[in-house]
Amino acid sequence: MAEQEMIPINIGNINDGAVIEAFDIVIQKIWANILDLNTPATDTRSLTIRVDFKPHSDRCTIETEVHCSSKLAPIEKHTSKCFMGKSEDGTIVAFATDPRQMPPFREVHPVTSKFLLRMKGVKDQLPQIALFEIDAKWKLYTVEAIRRYLHHELPDAKVIA
User: Fold this and answer.
1) In the 3-class helix/strand/coil scheme, how is 24-86 assigned residue by residue?
2) 139 pLDDT band (50/70/90 cuts)?
3) Neighbours of 66 (CB within 10 A)
4) pTM of the predicted model, to two decimals?
């Protein structure tokens, strides 16, 4: 029977390579934390490797445990406000915007219209491009859409359109 070579324990082979494997896992968490824009860029991160040795009473057999942990930068503090109010049925609610203030502009849906795009190739030059409106009624539709929107949003206002 061939004699087996005895290799002393080192950081690469203790617990069948668990230190290196744990290091690789935890270092990825540190890299991700550094790249996270929600954490302070210059905070120090740390990685701790701990190996616990628990000898048996014979002092020849030792159980080993590998622990690898990290200290990451915390998520940066973000401050804001919310606004308290009551619903019609008296339920207390909170809002991200002040319900007492009307936003300066409401979203208006764009008016769609059909156009024809013509391109004419000219030798040794950039092409000539022209855009022609197919539906000339778009202005009337736009004015009517704005009138309806204003009438709906501001029912007491006089809209001339």
Assistant:
1) HHHHHHHHHHHHCCCCCCCCCCEEEEEEEEEECCCCCCEEEEEEEEEECCCCCCCCCCCEEEE
2) low
3) 19
4) 0.51
Tokens 């849906």 correspond to 109
The answer to whether 54 and 65 are in contact (CB under 8 A) is yes
Closest CA to 18 of 45, 46, 49, 48: 49
Q: Which residues is 86 bridged to in the sheet? A: 92
pLDDT digits (tens, 9 = 90+) for 67-81: 999 999 999 888 888
Q: And the tokens for 50?
A: 């701990």
29-61 burial: b if 16+ Cβ within 10 Å, else e:
ebeebeeeeebeeeeeeeeeeeeeeeeeeeeee
From CA 39, how far away is CA 30, in angstroms rounded? 11
Give every CB contact of residue 97 below 8 A, 6+ residues apart in sequence. Answer: 83, 103
- Token pair, residue 114, equals 């059909």
The rounded distance, in Å, linking the Cα atoms of 64 and 54 is 6
- Which of 4, 99, 9, 112 is CA-nearest to residue 51? 9
Among 46, 49, 58, CA closest to 14: 49
